[in-house]
């Protein structure tokens, strides 16, 4: 069994590493359990995290229509079915709040963004490199992190639920934000998982 096949089946992934992957997959719309057994839905979400949500604007920390179109694509993972027009309304915010429940949001799904919504968005932004406080006040650094997540990490393959080299390369790029300094070779090892885990740990303690 190749590493790629083993990774896809979950056979070569420890429960702790599987939970790490599932937590990262929340950024790609994964809504299943954090049970440490990544299946196709986990991998599809991880692939979506790597690919991004169609944002093609600048990583400038200033949210504009392009950023909000990306946010609306993310909100679609939470049930938003409206237009991708970059104009955030209550339906867009409700979809986003639904997605953000995987990032610690426990407020009402009311379509009215408040401090709790922004704080959860900062947790999401951690995957994109934001390392500031979770204070519910989104500044340029928070938005840069969100924009990076929306842009993706270089994944260009299909969203097929099978973890191949391109999926792992994208995860290794994300892991760099947690201190991974190894090669971007699509072959996951302990350092790849450690980088992803460190990224999530920082989000819990900051």
Percentage of helical residues? 40-55%
| Computed Rg | 16 Å
Backbone shape: globular
What is the beta-strand fraction?
under 5%
Q: What series of H and E elements makes up the topology?
A: HHHHHHHHH
Structural class: mainly alpha
C-alpha termini separation: 40 Å
Integer average pLDDT: 75
Number of helices: 9
The description of the largest β-sheet is: none
Instruction: Please report the total strand number as a whole number.
Output: 0
The domain tally reads 1
Low-confidence stretches: 1-11
Offer a concise description of the structure.
The chain is mainly alpha-helical and 206 residues long. It has 9 helices and no strands.
Explain how this protein is built.
This protein has 206 residues and is mostly helical. Helices cover 50% and strands 0% of the residues. The chain contains 9 helices and no strands. α2 (15-25) packs across α3 (40-51) and α8 crosses α9 (190-205). The longest helix has 16 residues, at 190-205. The termini are far apart.
